[in-house]
Design a protein that fits this description.
The complex is a heterodimer of chains A (291) and B (96). Chain A has one domain: Thiamin diphosphate (ThDP)-binding fold, Pyr/PP domains (Rossmann fold), CATH 3.40.50. Helix content of chain A is 36%, strand content 15%. Chain A is built from eleven helices and eight strands. In chain A, helix 5 crosses helix 6 and helix 6 crosses helix 7. Chain B is built from four helices and four strands. Chain B has one domain: Alpha-Beta Plaits, CATH 3.30.70.20. Classes of the chains: A alpha/beta (291), B alpha+beta (96). At the A-B interface, helix 1, helix 2, helix 8 and helix 10 of A face helix 1 and helix 2 of B.
């Protein structure tokens, strides 16, 4: 055993974390940390140069990921993670830009930015941690909250329709759309790895428990109960029509890779058009360097 | 001899129980002892069953636990450690 103590194995995830900031502020049973594990494993397995990976987060519980991950990272204003990421990608095309943010940030205040980035097919990778509620501000109804859920702003239950995120993002033009839960750690890591290989607007929805606000108010147990619930009700249907994957409070959760297609991305289109119009006067973006 | 082991950073643990629940070989259990924040942290109740698959590490939201494979044993133990693949396949299926 003395040999073992000499070797002192390291947690493979720690190399991607700012360990001086750990322990983090996420509640016991929250799934965001689990998704960060999958992300770190995806970074290891994708074998890409991690110096060229930039993480952009907005505001919210998930927005704190940018502060905990030891990459180039931006913690941006509320809802504006995607505009920051778009600028970052266009200014420095060799970067792998990952937007890691929550459903409130990406689909409520930042909804407009998201659909337009998907329409233009900007080459950014979006990981949306969906806990079905505005968690950091006290559990108000979000655009993703399913029907009949009790929240602090709907104490008698929600009654308005929720967004079906994969359907919305596919319709807006994303080239890669998948949904997993934090229970599916290995599949999530694999999906993130595929996302790194993809060119264009890629989107992964990750369902995560919010035991403090969502599950507690709705008597759905704690984080572990939610993980067991995910295990029980999720069905893997790769290639399922995104129209049919809407979430309900306690119904089936369809997970898998829904969309994987090819489209010219924004930079390609811009490059072709400008080269057409300007000819020799056009200066490649790659030729500019900040080093 | 166990094929793997886990390391636990007790003070980082928030006792969510993910590692205990999803360990494919049921190595872990929550102990009755507390850490400084008052959480019952996990410990290895069946260390001999550990395959070192690091699924506990992938589930842990607090980066407080991880599994690792034991270094290859010397020759005389090689026969004992010979049948490893079965457990690994099982844990992959569990993860799905």
């Amino acid at each position: 055993m003395s040999e073992l103590t000499e070797l002192t194995p390291q947690n493979p995830v720690e190399q991607f974390l700012r360990m001086d900031r750990i322990p983090h502020i996420w509640c016991p049973g929250c799934g965001i940390g689990t998704s960060v594990n999958s992300f770190a494993h995806a970074l290891i397995d994708a074998k890409i140069d991690t110096r060229n990976v930039a993480i952009v987060s907005g505001i919210g519980c998930t927005g704190r990921v940018a502060g905990y991950v030891k990459q180039d990272s931006f913690h941006t204003t509320h809802g504006r993670a995607i505009p920051f990421a778009t600028g970052l990608k266009l200014a420095n095309p060799k970067l792998n830009v990952v937007v890691y943010s929550g459903d409130g940030d990406l689909f409520a205040i930042g909804g407009n930015h998201l659909i337009h980035a998907a329409r233009r097919n900007v080459d950014i990778k979006v990981v949306c941690i969906n806990n079905l509620i505005y968690a950091m501000t006290g559990g108000q109804t979000a655009p993703t909250t399913p029907n009949d859920v009790i929240t602090s702003t709907n104490p008698y239950g929600t009654f308005d329709a929720a967004f079906n995120l994969p359907y919305l993002v596919e319709a807006a033009g994303a080239v890669y759309v998948a949904r997993w839960t934090v229970f599916h750690v290995k599949q999530l890591a694999r999906a993130m790895q595929e996302m790194f290989a993809k060119r264009g607007f890629s989107f992964i929805e990750v369902l995560s428990p919010c035991p403090t606000l969502y599950q507690r108010r709705n008597k759905m147990g704690d984080g572990l109960d939610t993980m067991k619930f995910y295990k029980e009700v999720s069905k893997i249907r790769n290639g399922a029509s995104t129209k049919d994957v809407a979430l309900t409070k306690s119904g089936e959760i369809t997970v898998g890779k829904f969309v994987d297609r090819e489209r010219s991305d924004y930079r390609e289109l811009m490059h072709d058009r400008l080269l057409d119009s300007l000819g020799d006067d056009y200066v490649e973006t790659e030729a500019c360097s900040c080093q | 001899m166990a094929k793997g082991s886990v390391q636990i950073v007790v003070e980082r643990c928030k006792a969510c129980g993910f590692c205990v629940e999803f360990c494919p070989t049921h190595v872990l259990a929550l102990s009755s002892a507390f850490n400084a924040k008052g959480y019952h942290t996990p410990y290895m109740v069946h260390p001999e069953k550990c395959s070192g698959c690091d699924l506990c590490g992938m589930y842990c939201p607090d980066f407080a636990i991880f599994g690792y494979k034991q270094p290859a044993p010397p020759k005389e133990n090689a026969a004992v450690a010979a049948p490893p693949p079965a457990a690994e396949i099982k844990e992959d299926q569990d993860a799905r």
